[in-house]
Every structure is written in structure tokens, then in C-alpha cells.
Amino acid sequence: MTTERASSKSSSDSKQGSRTPLYRQIKEYVRNQIEQSVWLANDKIPSENEMAGQFKVSRITIKNALQELIEEGLIYRIQGKGTFVAQDKLGEPPVYRPEKRQGDLTVAFLMPRIDNRFTANLLHGIENQLADEGFNLLFRTTGDSQETEKELLNQIVRSGFNGIIIYPAQGQSYNEEILKLTLNEFPVVVVDRYLRGVETNYVCSDNVTGAFEATEHCYRMGHRRIGFISTHVEGTSSIEDRLTGYEKALSENGILIDRYLRLTDLESKEVNRILQDGASDSASKERIVQYLERNPELTAVIAVNSSVGLTVMEAAKQLSRRVPEDLSVVFLDDYELSAFSAIPPTFVNQEEYTVGREAVKLLVSVMSNPKQKRRKIVVPTRLVVRASSSARPEE
User: Fold this and answer.
1) Where are the domains of the chain?
2) Domain 106-205+352-378: assigned CATH number
3) Angle between the N-to-C axes of helices 176-183 and 146-158, in degrees from 0 to 180, rounded to the nearest 10
4) Would 2-85 and 207-351 be classified into the same CATH topology?
5) Neighbouring residues of 92: CB distance < 8 A, sequence distance ≥ 6
6) What's the CATH architecture for 207-351?
7) Which residues form the HTH gntR-type domain (predicted)?
């Protein structure tokens, strides 16, 4: 497996790219060549491979552009010989038979749920890049259930779709169906979570570096007792990587890793209520309150995500510990409208929009060549410093 780092261009830059999908640009190029009589009736046009090289896109993007022109009657294809310009619109109808297609313009995307900014931006990136490539999107949620995930995967494969992007349900093992599809060379790309030791095509944020930079930010502000709070670590690679980055930053700055400063077994479904319902789960908040009471010397906390971060801030408020004067809190992702909250949080931008676009690019590449070596693409993150972190309080 090869590991690659995606461009560090931010998601906002990505969104400002071309508004015209790539396949439509190519479609218009071919149409113009014909309308301007550069290519005449019955002329053979460049092959899909030649145009893919010319425009530096995948063959599938070219295929999608040409297929629409075939259906419009502007060109026709002869099996084994190539693609040709049809008779002009004033002449006889072209003699061609459109290829039967079943699902080859639709890609499926499965994810546990769409309930926060991260998942919404991830979906948005996938949707936009698929449109650029000329594909439709089938989107389904699994409710973070491996059983539902398995059923949906089987339905999608039976329906004849050409590719799947999947954000796996949380667990200590991949769904067997994902492994079967990978072994059978079915085009699959995994996003955000991956299973160590299993070679699949996947795209993720650089969670290790993101957590490292968040922790080092606290260290540079004078903090030495820095905690880490998360939902269950085991079986979720993104959380495991964030914990690794946190511990790496402590070690490289000469701070002993204190296991008692870690709280890593909150229930994700419970703690997520703060974003869904506007109120934290009482059990999760109470556990964080107890954690803060056990560690009065703590001056900074790295929260694995925005749900945990908001619950930490509520727990601190209950104990009359001010953020950031008494306790700095850094979120390892962001939430909708966070900039307008009473205390806008310092956070790590996971660049999830870019993760979505890169996942589609990788899937299209795999669809063009299913036997290619499996690839891991890591998207750089970015620390955004705001009001929830400050210098260590005076003792």
C-alpha cells in the first residue's frame, strides 16, 4: 500500500474551483470540434485513452462525456473500432445503438449518520466531486450499525453500481462485506476510519498531526498538565490516531504520559446529544465533572471532537472553572456556527470537504484500474486558534 499526502489547499479554496463539472467541459469541447467542422461526419475522434491523457482526467470521466453525446446522437460507437462523428443534424439520423448502462453513472456513499458539521461537509465534498466527474450519488445512513451496513452493501452490489465510498460503522473490526468487496476487487474507498493491517483504499484526515499540533499549542501556552477526553478509543482508527498524536506531543516535549489524565471511554451516542438536542447527556457530563474533580491541577484538555469539547465546557462551568482563564479546551474538530458561540473554540480543521473530494478522485482511479496498488491518502489538517485556549493560569 502506498501512502500519499493530499494537497494542503484548504476546503474553502477547494470550493472555489471550477463550477463546471469536468465531464461537461470535455463534452462541450467535443461538441465544439464537431460544430466548427474540425471533425466531420464519420470522422473517427480521439480514443478515450488519448483524450484522458490530453485533459489529464480518468477514462471514466471521458466515457461519461462521450456517452451523453452518443445519447444525443452527435457521435456513435462501433465496438472494436472506436467512436465516430454522426451525420449532421440536417442529414440522416446516425446509425448507432446506445450502450445499455445499469448504474455505471451512480456511486453509493454509506455513512453512520449525518448529524454534525464534519459529516455534512464530507458529504458535500463527495457530492460536488462526483458531479464534476459526471456521476450521480446514492446516499444512505447506517445508524452506526454493522448489520444495516451489511444489508445496504449487498443491496448496492446487487443493483449494479460501479463503486462505493464508505464511512464504516464504529467497531473493532470491519464489516466482512467490506473485506469481501476489497478481495474481489470491487471499487471501494473507505473514509475516516480504517482497520489496521487490512489493505483497503482509504482517505482520512491527518489525525496524528492534528492532535499533535493541538497538544503542542497548549504546551507553548505554558500548560504542562494536559488531559485527553474521548469516546471509546478501541476499534476507531481516527480516535486512536488522535490519542497517538496527543501522546507524541507530550513525549517530544519531555512530559511524562499520565494515564490518569486520559478519559477515553465515553459513549458516542450519548455525548453526541449536545449537538443534536442542545443539551449534554447527564451521564457523560457527570463523568467529566468527576474527572476534572480528580485532576484539579489540570489546566488544559484536548477534546476528541466538538461534542466532547462542548460537554467539557459545560462540566467546567458546573465546577465554576472558567474557560479559558482556568481551563483551556481545544476541540479536534469543529461544529456548525461555533464561531458565534459565547466562547468560540480553538479547534483542528479536519478539512473534511477535501477528504470527500479526494475519496471520489481515488474511487474513479480504482474504477479505471481495479488491479492498481491500494492507496492511502492523508489530508493535512489545520489548527485554528480562537477563544477557548489561553496561557496557563498563574499559580
Assistant:
1) 2-85, 106-205+352-378, 207-351
2) 3.40.50.2300
3) 30
4) no
5) none
6) 3-Layer(aba) Sandwich (3.40)
7) 20-88
Q: Is 379 helix (H, G, I), strand (E, B) or coil?
A: strand
Cα 8 to Cα 12, 132, 155: the distances in Å are 11, 20, 36
- The phi and psi torsions of 203 (rounded to 5 degrees) equal -130, 135
Q: DSSP letter at 127?
A: H
* pLDDT tens-digit readout, 85-143: 886 543 343 333 333 344 457 999 999 988 788 999 999 999 999 999 999 999 999 98
pLDDT band per the 50, 70, 90 thresholds, residue 303: very high
Q: In what order do the strands lie in the sheet with 188-191?
A: 2-5, 375-379, 201-205, 188-191, 163-166, 106-111, 136-141
Residue 78: strand, helix, or coil: strand
What CATH class does 2-85 carry? mainly alpha
Residue (of 343, 345, 379, 349) closest to 361 by Cα position: 379
Smallest Cα–Cα separation from 109: which of 185, 161, 158, 57?
161
| Angle at 362 (CA atoms; ends 133, 349), nearest 5 degrees | 95
Helix (H, G, I), strand (E, B) or coil at 150: helix
Task: Express the helix, strand and coil content of the chain in percent, nearest 5 each.
Answer: 40, 15, 40
Pairing of strands 375-379, 328-331: unpaired
pTM > 0.90: yes or no: no
Asked if residues 319 and 302 have their Cβ atoms less than 8 Å apart, the reply is: no
